[in-house]
From TrEMBL:
GO terms for molecular function: CoA-transferase activity. The keyword Acetylation does not apply. The keyword Cell wall biogenesis/degradation does not apply. SMART domains: CoA_trans. Keywords: Transferase. It comes from the Bacteria. Pfam families: CoA_trans (PF01144). This is 3-oxoacid CoA-transferase subunit A.
Length: 236
């Protein structure tokens, strides 16, 4: 059964040199409070695993970890929105492991399912060939990628009940799949309700995958944060 703890208690579960999955995509459905706590704690030499870099322009959500130079290795499918991250990669301050977006998701899924590899033709004949082992199956070429698993996954959901059953709202993206692929799963949510208040058909991640529940910003607070961000970054 999942345990409700404070963000301050949750961040203590993350140690220096940990591998940490962070749910969300380009700022959306991202655990903002937990990222801020990681920055405040100055946890260093992290291997961060997320499908894409932070919100465009850098210095937002995952970009805060980049600016604070807490990332040693970044496993992802997309880095183009964060110039600070690109600079650190080019300067060899951050090691980059890149794979196509669909392959990235499959690698996480394989890590959660206990599979030994992801075998795909995607990337044959491109620079992606340099990132994986090439194998032949039935006279056809494939690329073999290792699964992705993490010490900790920090995911974002709209709502949790007291058992850790999670409901998503609008965009869940990588959060449900990352919940299956880490030793410790911390769910940051907008609100926590009693068992039975989430319709069973609305549960996107069963509580069996969740270890800790953290109260994040409320839904209205998140709307205000994102509206202010989008206005500030889209001025003419």
């Amino acid at each position: 059964m999942a345990m409700q703890i404070t963000p301050e208690e949750a961040v203590k579960k993350i140690k220096n040199k940990s591998s940490v999955m962070i749910g969300g995509f380009l700022g959306a459905a991202v655990p903002l409070v937990m990222i801020d706590k990681m920055v405040a704690e100055k946890i260093k030499d992290l291997t961060v695993i997320s499908i894409g870099a932070g919100y465009r322009g850098g210095g937002v959500d995952i970009g805060k970890l980049v600016l604070n130079r807490q990332i040693a290795k970044y496993i992802t499918a997309h880095v183009g929105t964060d110039p600070n991250l690109i600079k650190q990669i080019v300067n060899q301050e951050i090691e980059l492991e890149l794979s196509p977006m669909g392959t990235f998701v499959e690698r996480v899924r394989a890590g959660g399912a206990g599979l030994g590899a992801v075998v795909t033709p995607v990337g044959i004949g491109t620079e992606v060939e340099d990132m994986a082992e090439k194998i032949i199956i039935d006279e056809k070429e494939y690329l073999l990628f290792k699964p992705i698993h993490a010490d900790v996954a920090i995911i974002k959901a709209f709502r949790s009940d007291s058992l850790g059953n999670l409901q998503y709202k609008g965009m869940s993206n990588t959060n449900p799949i990352m919940a299956t692929a880490a030793d410790i799963v911390i769910a940051e949510v907008d609100e926590i309700v009693e068992v039975g208040e989430i319709n069973c058909e609305a549960i996107g991640t069963p509580g069996i995958f969740v270890d800790y529940i953290v109260q994040g910003h409320t839904y209205e607070e998140r709307k205000e944060i994102y509206e202010a961000l989008w206005i500030s970054t889209n001025k003419l």
